[in-house]
Amino acid sequence: MRLRRPRQQESKPLALPERGEAVIVSTSAGGHMPARIAELDADSLLVAISVPIKPFSPRELDGMQLLFNNQHGRIRLSGECSVEDEREPDVLRMRNPRSIEVLQEREFVRIKAARPVIVYRVGDQVEVASFTVDLSGGGVLLAGPDNLKPGDEVRFSLSIQPGDASIAGKGRVVRCDEQGRNAVCFDEISDFDRRRLVRFIFECQRQERRRGLPGRESHG
Q1: What pLDDT does 199 receive?
Q2: Which residues of 39-65 are buried (b: 16+ CB within 10 A; e: fewer)?
Q3: 124 to 29, 70, 127, 129, 169: CA distances (angstroms)
Q4: Segments in the chain forming alpha helices (H)
Q5: How far is C-alpha 42 from the chain's CA centre?
Q6: Given this model, what pLDDT does residue 110 score?
Q7: Cα separation, 19 vs 3, whole angstroms
């Protein structure tokens, strides 16, 4: 009898940022810096950090990661990081990049919804009133403010229902578009508040289906 060979599972292509794309450089010491992809090929990425920095220690380079978003969600890359030229400590080379599956955000349903939110950049004392363009259990797209940039750490207080307690937490700006909107991924939010937010999103979906509205939700 002829034995069938087991079918090999097709490996998924490694998700990499594109040339010129904004990313966040994360160190083992907890630092986060905005950067852009200067060059890339199949085996390495050249990353240019966008803010002034001090030279990295070997420990920081050893635990360095890249954070970016694509259509599948929030991706973290790890690899062998080194300074390309000692005269330019803000230019890094990541060789043999690989995705860290356990640290990727699971996909959340995202809906378009305008909800009031108070946001301020960590370190600033000025609170700014804005509203969401869309939201999910993993982050929000804000209509403003226009003084934020990728890499900024922000605190937020989101009101989802009149009379209910606000959902508060900390996040990081991962993208800003030409319309002045800011995509914020949650870094710190309680499990209780995340469950409240996800329940609210599902309830919005049910209400839309009852009204016969076409589905507007996506994933990310």
Answers
A1: 85
A2: ebeeebbbbbbbeeeeebeeebbeebb
A3: 22, 29, 8, 14, 16
A4: 58-62, 191-210
A5: 23
A6: 78
A7: 47
